[in-house]
Amino acid sequence: MYRRSEPEGQGLRHGRPSQRLRPAGGSLLDFVPASAEETAPPEEARTLEKVGASVRVVDLPAPSHNARAPEEPASAADFFPQLHLLGSIGINDIIVWLRDGIRWIVIALLLSGAAAFAYAVTATPRYTVYTDLVVDPSNLNVVSDDVFTTNPQRDAQLLEVESKLRILTSRNVLQRVIDELRLSEDPEFVKPTLLDWLKALLAPRDGKTDKDLAAMRVLSERVEARREERSFVVVLKVWSEEPAKAIALSDAIVEAFEAELFQSSAESAGRVAQNLNARLDELRRNVTEAERRVEDFRRQNGLQSTNGELVSNQLSSELNTQVLDGQQRFIQAETRYRQMSSAVAGGRTASASVFESANMTDLRQQYNALQQQIGSMQLTYGERHPRLVAARSERATLETAMKDEARRILERAKADFDRERKALATLRGKADNEKSNVFTDNQAQVQLRDLERDARSKAAIYETHLARAQQITERQQIDTTNVRVISRALPPNARSWPPRTLVLLIGGAFLGLALGIATALALGLWRFLRGKTRAAA
Predict the structure, then answer these.
(1) Of 143, 170, 183, 307, which has the fewest CB atoms closer than 10 Å, so is most exposed?
(2) Going by C-beta distance under 8 Å and a sequence separation of 6 or more, which residues neighbour residue 53?
(3) Residue 46 covered by a domain
(4) Above 70 in pLDDT, residue 1?
(5) In contact, 40 and 15? CB cutoff 8 Å
(6) 304 CB contacts (<8 Å, ≥6 apart)?
(7) Domains of the chain: total
(8) What is the C-alpha separation between 382 and 374, in angstroms, rounded?
(9) Is 11 inside any structural domain?
(10) Who contacts 55 (Cβ-Cβ below 8 Å, separation ≥6)?
(11) How high is the pLDDT of residue 157?
(12) Nearest in space to 462 (alpha carbons), one of 212, 279, 226
């Protein structure tokens, strides 16, 4: 039979739970477990018996009352004999404990005061300065159609201010401050340690980069910015170990912030201008190609224009005017020729006014003067008087000369009439031919206008983009950010940390007093629970 050892083979015991008399009011003794003496002995025990490959439970007879009980572990009541008297502690006990532990109170008070004084003397001072800025979300309206638009909604404006607030403490701004003030060489921001020397010895790296990173970490911990509620005012908080350096840091951060905003807007405008310039090359090629198609079409169809009008239209108009003038001259020449022909046929060459020439005028004057002489002679002389006969013979000669001059004028009028008729016929032929050209040119001009419209639209787009690109390029040189400093950083009156020495001493004294009192009470309670002292009467 297999049997476990006594500590392991001790089975479950069925016993009666012990009962303790509790006070009527209740105390901390209610939570104290019953002692080993109050526990009833078990009535029976069980053990395990191994038979072959199986194990079975075997009931063992209950041990006699005379047998020695196994040793049980010590309970809390054994370690703290007076634990059941915990509820009887009163104010007198606490006073006694404080009186007995007065030395601990005095020691804690002295140590805390000394520690506070040492910290006040050795702690690194902090001088904090504040700068107030107004970050207006709407930029200055320098140009009418700026690249950046302003959202009138208040929520969007607050988001814009919060974004700029984040830029104020960004690494770009802080890096500008580090480079400007050379903080990577300042022992206040970069403090060399033995660990850094070992790292540099084991893994050599760029020392300036490590110093910049260290200065960046320290500076980012010393800078804080927040926005005042329901306003666009931003408060910048900066601290340093020296008041002048804190003011220099604050001013440098503000300048770097303004420079960063200007650079950001300039870079954004530069990207827009660069994209427009890249687009301008294609637009320029499109305009050149459209204008080339217009000129090729004009050349192929012989469409010439002057002052925006086709030459064929102008020529047709001029020919029509010439036809009207030629027709008028033809009518005048025809009328004059017919009047002369009628006067010659009627023998009215001497009196007809249509015959106009210098020779005809002289002949008429001679004829009129001779006619007057003949009339006078008829009254003075007889019909057969030699002088009258000679005058009549001379008159006949003048009439013949006048008829010859009239025929000559008639022939010239006939030549003018024929010339005007031929000229009119020629002009009409040219006008008719030009009309057909005008119709052809007008049909071609429909397509030409379409090509010209396409060229004009592309040219307009190109000119718009060109002007916009030049405007945005110039916009890069203008700072439109609306950030104003309303309160510059002033030298602080006192350090912000640590507090004054007197304040630290008072705080250390209170802390030491509390620690001493707590220590005295803890020691008194320990001695009471261990039974070294009794409760005060």
Answers:
(1) 307
(2) none
(3) no
(4) no
(5) yes
(6) 298, 310, 311, 312
(7) 3
(8) 11
(9) no
(10) 2, 48, 49
(11) 79
(12) 279
State the residue range of the domain holding 512. Answer: 90-123+499-533
In this structure, the answer to whether residues 312 and 364 fall within a common structural domain is yes
Encode pLDDT of 78-113 as tens digits: 677 777 777 778 888 888 888 888 998 899 889 988
> Does 205 score more than 80 pLDDT?
no
At 509, give phi and psi (nearest 5°).
-65, -45
Same domain, 99 and 191: no
Per-residue burial over 423-455, b = 16 or more CB atoms within 10 Å of its CB, e = otherwise: bbeebbebbeebeebbeebeebbeebeebbebb
The candidate with the shortest Cα–Cα distance to 164, out of 178, 148, 180, is: 148
Query: Measured over all CA atoms, what is the biggest interatomic distance in the chain, rounded to whole angstroms?
Result: 222
CA 146, 148, 151 angle in degrees (round to 5)?
A: 115
Residue 7 tokens, joined = 């500590």
278 beta partners: none
Nearest to 496 by CA among 219, 125, 119, 222: 125
List, as own/partner pairs, every contact residues 339-344 make where C-beta atoms lie below 8 angstroms and the sequence separation is at least 24, other chains included: 340/406, 340/409, 340/410, 340/413, 341/410, 343/406, 344/403, 344/406, 344/407, 344/410
Same domain, 116 and 155: no
Pairing of strands 223-227, 54-60: unpaired
The reply to whether 466 and 340 lie within a common domain is yes
Matching residue, tokens 């400007």: 180
CA distance 177 to 222: 13
Q: Is residue 325 located within the same domain as residue 258?
A: no
Tokens of 356: 């106009």
Termini Cα distance of the chain: 63
Residue 348 lies in a domain: yes
Task: Specify if 517 maps to a domain.
Answer: yes
Closest CA to 114 of 102, 125, 122: 122
For 129, the enclosing helix (H) or strand (E) is: strand 127-135
